[in-house]
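I have been asked to look over a protein record a colleague put together. Alongside the sequence sits a line of tokens, each denoting a local backbone shape. Please read both lines and tell me whether the tokens look consistent with the sequence. Take the sequence as given and treat only the tokens as open to question. I have pasted the whole thing underneath without changing anything:
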Amino acid sequence: AKSFLKLGKWAEHEAKDIFLARKVYESALVELEPEEARQARVFKQFAAFEERQGEYQRARVIYKHAIKLLNLGERQVHLQGEDDDITDNERYRRDELYKAYVAFEKKHGEKDGIENVILTKQRAEYKKRLAEDTFDYDAWFEYAKLEEDHGDSNAVREVYEQAVSNIPPAQEKQYWKRYIYLWIYYAIYEELEMTDLDRASKIYDACIAIIPHTKFSFAKIWIFAAKLHVRRKDLTAARKVLGRAIGLCGKEKIFTEYISLELTLGEVDRCRALYNNYLKAMPHNCKAWAKYADLERSVGETERCRALYELAVSQEALDMPEFLWKGYIDFEIEEGEGDKARALYERLLERTGHVKVWISFAQFEGTEFGRGVKEARTIFDRAYNRLKEEGLKEERVLLLDAWRVFEKTKGDVAGVSAVERKMPRRIKKKRMQKDQETGAELGWEEYFDYHFPDDQSDASNNLKILEMAAKWKQAQAAAADDDDDDSDSDSD
């Protein structure tokens, strides 16, 4: 090869015989042994010669032939055995050959040619990165996006197929979260870009088939698959998918999406059946109870709505009971059933004495459905005494603030004055902080305490009683001393 290259160089520069030089380079590729003809420097010098002669198309053909023959560019990822057969010098020359091709395209190529060179290099980088770690799902996402933007549909599908074939080795959900989105992106590409809804549906089916549902599942996959069937106008298939999802996945999102679908279609009976299954699986879910009751109310089934609320509040364990009770009370108020709402407040206060319940109860009595301002004051007073007995100072302050606002809006000046006389004074105090585990003292901290006027009067009354008891005890002691003195004098 070295001799051919020297002869070609002499023919071009010394003999000035371009035809002879070209013939020499062509003969080098044909007559030399394969291992000699496949050397990178042969192609590089031949292409550079054609470039100097202005034969850019010939030079491009030579470069592309070399890249394909020597596995450069996107085929730059070799097997270890192939790398062992190439010397370091030859590997360096091949890298230089590829760089020369890139420079050639940037100098003489068109826009498409330049972009193709850059894409070829990017593909090579992604393939090398994925050869090192086939579970690098971020690399698969980037590679697929590259092909979507610049490649054809076959290339995109090939990338996605290779990507989803790399199933996470461990059946733990944390390793599957990124992997699942490869399937989702694949299906979305088929639906939106290729408008092939059938193929997208098969992709979702394949994804569902490989997920180990006995250990974990993904509600989003079931929902996306069902919605795709809806867009295909195949409601039967959508219902089958969601039905399977309830059995295999059983997450709250599945129930809500299925119910939303049936409600959109106006299938109230199907919604009721789904809510029944929903509540059997999650009887503690207050939002499910409330939405079921809202459904019955929206179709005019007031008694069914009331029965559902009654059944809901009778459950032993609820995740947000306050939300459910509020919905039940608001329902009765909106229906104009003031007595039933009042009874619900009383039942709720038997379970909890939270200050917000007392405030809401008192405010209700001040509305058109209540018994008026007088009854509202009675409720506020009951609440104040109850919180006072329990020693809840901050809750008493909240109650008094709400009571004062109520008196200003619906009461009178006397009512406002009465409430303000109950308002406490805020006093800054200090207390020693202690470690809960060791009991060691951590230092003093400042805090605010509340002194209520009626608490102070009670305290003063207690002090008077103690003083009177002490005086009485002293009087008894003095009387006993007098009797002792009298007995001594009699004995004398």
